[in-house]
Amino acid sequence: MRKKKKPEEMYALGQHISMSAHKARRVIDQIRGRSYEETLMILELMPYRACYSIFKLVYSAAANASYNMGSNETNLIISKAEVNEGTTVKKLKPRARGRSYPIKRPTCHITIGVTDISLEDEDELKGAYLKYEYKDKYRNIDYLTSLKKPRWTNTYTDMKNENVYSSGGVWDKK
Fold this sequence. Notes:
Blueprint: E1 9-17, H1 21-31, H2 36-45, H3 50-68, E2 76-94, E3 100-116, H4 122-131, E4 135-136, E5 141-142, H5 143-146
Helix pairs in contact: 2-3
Organism: Androsace erecta
Keywords: Chloroplast, Plastid, Ribonucleoprotein, Ribosomal protein, RNA-binding, rRNA-binding
Family: Belongs to the universal ribosomal protein uL22 family.
């Protein structure tokens, strides 16, 4: 008898949400790769209208993960968050002298995927932290390069030989 493998990622999909995909992306980019609890705090405090729809989807994805995978919500991380354009609803608004003006209302499809990080191999993560070479696959951060000093710390911008005010001519006039 074969043992069933638990799914690695759980999704929540919201389709035909009446907002522009561009406006939803500016919120989605802030939560991608963060923990579940941190994501809920961010979405509650951001002042955008898209936050409410995304909040409901994150909450739904976490409920799916706790029900289907049996995972704890404190171990969840937002592993996938994407926004695609949906259909555009086209209407006509009446204008003066019997004319009409087209109105386009964009929609979008939002997909939120959560992953339980307690199911990953813990020995692999411990070894990676010891080497300082751990690359976070959810947020696209390489921790080895983030520990390096910035390249502009060793540049010298002193003006020892050049005195701006004693150039002669221009500043000496009364």
